[in-house]
Amino acid sequence: MSQIALPLAWQPDARDAEFLVSPSNAVAVAMLDRWATWPVRTAILAGPPRSGRSLLGRIFAARAGARVIDDAHREPEEAVFHAWNRAQETGRPLLLIADDAPPTWQVALPDLRSRLHASPTATIAPPDDALMTALFEHGFAQRRLDARADLIAWLVARVERRHASVIDAMDRLDSAALAGRRRLTIPLARETLHAVPAFTDRSDETT
């Protein structure tokens, strides 16, 4: 997996270093890279909270001069409708970030619903093994924790494929290592995470 922040067409800067690209989010990144070819000036980026969707939106806003509405599914529909129309009038791209794309994102206002269906959409998928590995490596490094490759591989095989679950596991391990003044190991991880629903303890495998 490549630890690049943005499509290669965009020159990276220091702010971008935390957005990691893998096949699970590459379609979303590519959609933003090709914003000039959108059939309308508005696109939808769907994905679960803590998936990097807001960071990607901020990077896109800085790079393309775009307006971004985060959690657009929680905004008044009239406001989103007017924002969509304004983007077409001004030519300034608009990115709507939501948990889900239509039709799962249920919209009551018919005029807005038709506009959203006309907008290009990309969804950030659950993290694949490559991204799980990179998220653990990057997150532990940020916390200045020495996480060996065998521990990371062990976690990737057992932690639920959700961005939030990866972050939760790292937070728990960080706290456990600090509280016990212990280094990160597989036994510490098993002890810390065994009761966490998002963790599957395959105790019959290599420990």
UniProtKB/TrEMBL annotation:
<dbReference type="GO" id="GO:0003688">
    <property type="term" value="F:DNA replication origin binding"/>
</dbReference>
<dbReference type="GO" id="GO:0005886">
    <property type="term" value="C:plasma membrane"/>
</dbReference>
<dbReference type="GO" id="GO:0006270">
    <property type="term" value="P:DNA replication initiation"/>
</dbReference>
<dbReference type="Pfam" id="PF22688">
    <property type="entry name" value="Hda_lid"/>
</dbReference>
<dbReference type="InterPro" id="IPR055199">
    <property type="entry name" value="Hda_lid"/>
</dbReference>
<feature type="domain" description="Hda lid">
    <location>
        <begin position="137"/>
        <end position="193"/>
    </location>
</feature>
<dbReference type="InterPro" id="IPR027417">
    <property type="entry name" value="P-loop_NTPase"/>
</dbReference>
<protein>
    <submittedName>
        <fullName>Chromosomal replication initiator DnaA</fullName>
    </submittedName>
</protein>
